[in-house]
Amino acid sequence: MQWGLPSVGHLRMGLYLLHLHLHGLIRGHDLELGRDADTGGQTTYVLELARALAEQPQVDRLEVITRCIEDRRISPDYAVQRETLHPRASLLRLSFGPRRYLRKELLWPHLEELVDRLVLHITRQQRRPDWIHAHYADAGWVGAELQRRLGIPLVFTGHSLGREKRRRLLDLGQHPDQLNQHYAMDRRIAAEEDALAASSLVVTSTRQEASVQYAGYRHFHPDLPEVIPPGVDTTAFHPHLDASEDDRVTALLQPFLRQPERPPLLALCRPDRRKNIPALIDAYGASESLRSSHNLVLILGCRHDLHQLEKSQREEWQQVLEAIDRHDLYGLVAYPKQHQRSQVPAMYRWAARRRGLFVNPALTEPFGLTLLEAAACGLPVVATDDGGPRDILARCRNGLLAAVAERGRLGQVLEQAAGPTAPWDDWQRQGLAAVAEAYSWQAHARRYLQVAADLCGQGSRPADLERMRPRLAAPTRLRKVYARISEP
Prior knowledge:
There is one protein chain. This protein is α/β, with parallel strands linked by helices. It is about 40% helix and about 15% strand. The strands form three sheets. It has an eight-stranded mixed beta sheet with strand order 5-6-4-3-7-8-9-10, sandwiched between helices.
């Protein structure tokens, strides 16, 4: 395929891509995943995507724009203006709003300041980005403003959509006013509408996300989305556990468990209501067969003092601890305070060596990268029958889905998957094969660039400040350059 790369004179230039990831804590090493509700799977996705794209020969330069944070409560790493991710990719931290760390719901009043900074950043350069890729609603709004002012094409990934989250939380009995007060839900959904109206392409991870979750938006058009499943880093996530790794994970969990050699039910996520961990504890605690055969291992981010966590996390931990106490699960449940991101692959392998299961009981799951990480380490799964897990399990055939909203159903599926007749070895083999075949970051990056190829040539030209005055520009739909992925 011939790539329509832009040129200046006779000099051919590769692509210049700008990604927006505005909330949470992001750096190129030792990710603090689970430290709060804003630092989770999206952070991993953006970093892995950036590095994978930078490896492609068509890409000359890639910047990930995030927030510069100066706060004694967090590492000074997050105040470094520019951090190298790859010889052709970097994190650029721009200041907007207060210096201190803010959760994403408090960033909305400060986004206009970021738009102004980005307009200056772009117009002062010798070339414009070929396109801007906005991640989540806040970045989507910023990207839409940049598209309208500068005419640079916008690519949008919602990651977690406000309408779907609102629906699930209302089903759990929360009041609409409460949702707006804590989650700024109306503002978030309006920003998603703005992003969809300005986008040339929406990158989704699953068909369900593309056809169901986005369908409730006024500015959604069925031609916008392309399904490009994320990849998994198979250099880190693989099935080969060495003895020292086994010993370190055992040492981390042994203080909690009377019989640490038993098969574990492993859950790994941040402490967030959507992740539905209290329901998992209830399902385990109510099952005599699970309590007698398996341990429950909960890796729920890192904490120093529960009282120092933000309110939503404190409330979630309160429910977790109350559920453990209610079922008297001491000696059966591990919930360590601290772990390193580098330990996570070993935890999957540790659980697989003991013929355990990875469990994702989330109320909503746009994709579920942890399911692929578990599969790549040889660990079968039980996952929510929502969103991404449907696609992953259909392709990987390495476990069971559970309708977690149905009372008692999660426990029934866990008993089935953990029972003596479950095809654990088949699940392990099928999961490993599917990850190797279908889920790599290199394949994701190649398909991503192929889908967005028609954006090439619209940017990356010498800066013409007169041409780049703020203007309104309707996005043009990207020409389809590959067939939609087939059913697995």
